What does this fold into?
Amino acid sequence: MNYDELLKGELVCLEVLDPQPMASLICRWNLDSEFVRLFGDEPPRLWPVRYAQEGFENHLAELYLFAIRTLDDPRTIGILDLSEIDRISHNAWISIGIGERDQWGKGYGTDAMRVGIRFGFEQLNLHRISLTVFEYNPRARRSYEKLGFKEEGRARKFLNRDGQRWDMIYMGLLHDEWIGQEAP
Amino acid sequence: MIETSLFEGKTIRLTAINLEEDPPVEAEFTKDLDYARLLRPWPVRPISPFELKKLHEERIKRRGEFEQDYYFAVRPKNEERFIGFIRIPHIGWSHSNGLMQMAIGDPAWKGQCELEALNLLLTYAFHELNLYRLNVLVPEYDQEGIHLFEQAGFTCEVRQREILYQADRYWDLLLYGILSDEWHRQQMEVKG
It folds into this structure.
């Protein structure tokens, strides 16, 4: 199957990640504190672009890292990856970030996730795909529910943000459930 | 201020690893794949004394670099024999969260000393590391583990469905957590 078709959604497509331009973007997105707090639980670090680039280069062989762009614009708007792929249990963790703020709320993230999930199940033979989402990110949570992810529980008060504790929500999607909802 | 040793229980103690003496003993324990999996997720098979020594050396080296892995070899109070380990291999410092693991492999001590070791580790995690919460992952088939962590005051918070494959089928993985204030309240009750 043609790689371009495989990674194409209705609104966006996934592209092979090029370390140099993605490093520049990540370094810019890291300055957006809201983005960083929605994207991960680690504090933002401000690296020279060259170091961020090496970070990508060193992990290209073991990760499925993709750049996200809309179908009608060559500019990268976000990043998606499938990581910690378990060779026996056929589980992987998926994560996504739309770094360009003016592209939020247009359904691009959900569409990119749909492509990433399809790739995981159909090409990587995954049995399940896992993710975590923060209690203070209801927009992402709704998107994951729309994709079929089920909440599997909450690590209570896992996150500390400005002196307030928030839950970390665990979600999972099984291959069977995905096939069930993709069927016409 | 500090009345008792953090590392001495009634019947066991927490110690440093002995890189020469412990690996051959531990290699026997890794014939139980649940034990082996905690030390190295891939490849899943018993681990040789040579590989174990190397794993422990690498862990100590990494610890020097990142200050991450809080590891204790468990031994009987009055013996040098290695009977298992308990550790906090990962801490998220900005949120004060730790992930713990424990395995007792010695047949004479298995099922006997886990709660004691766990209580020593909880004291260490909350008194010394000042963690806000501590996590542990328990496969759904591990009835002893489930009983142990519930007895120690952990709450089952997450059930990751069919995330583990072994012995010809998929299993759920449970995430248990205990918060610092829950543990402190429990300690007050014990003391009366």
User: Anything to note?
Assistant: The two ends of chain B are 20 Å apart (CA to CA). Chain B is about 35% helix and 30% strand.
